Amino acid sequence: MTTGADIYRLQCLDSEGDAKQRRLAEVEAALGESEALRQARQALEHAQALIQKWMLRQRDRELEIQGLSDKISRSEQRLYGGAVKNPKELTDLQAEAAALRRRRQKLEDDLLETMIEREEAEAAHAQAQEHLDETQTHWATQQADLMAEREMLHGRLAEIEQARAELLPSIEAGDLAVYQALRRTKGGLAVVQMRDGACGGCGIVVPPSLEWQLRQEGLGYCGNCERIIVRV
Ligand SMILES: [Zn+2]
Question: How far is C-alpha 207 from the chain's CA centre?
Fold first, then answer.
């Protein structure tokens, strides 16, 4: 005959197994790259791309300024070299040199702005790197904890499986079938204890006849929720 203690123990093992399985699913889902880590890595890549952009622009401006400086030197050489004597030509050369200098000044202003932008991008990059490092450290610790927990859960689930296998022969086939059917229809909770004279599942007061039965046989059925009630 199935005892109340045995079927209650089966329920405890299965309830614990259910909870451990749920937690295992959560742990499995949390393993792997996190959203925070993905975002931190993206932010760093974005900062890197910005530095690259400003570096290229800086190099372009420097080359343009160099080219203009060469042109200015050449036109000044002609202007002051004494080879050109025609006043109209001299005036044109002066105007050209002045225009070149104005153009160079604009480029130099732009270069300065570009260098400031680059510095800011580098600062943002350093910050993004720091944030990524912190996120990664935190993530790695979390992953290690999760992996340790997963191992522990697998271990405990194996123990539960073992204990269940040892317990099953002491539960009669008919009782096991009822138990399994109740587990499916009662949210996993098929066996409850009597608590303060009431059903531990639905809370309804256990009538004297059932209480007597529980005293005699150790288990009975709740007339309300139909669960197996035990008196352990
Ligand atoms: Zn009940």
Answer: 52
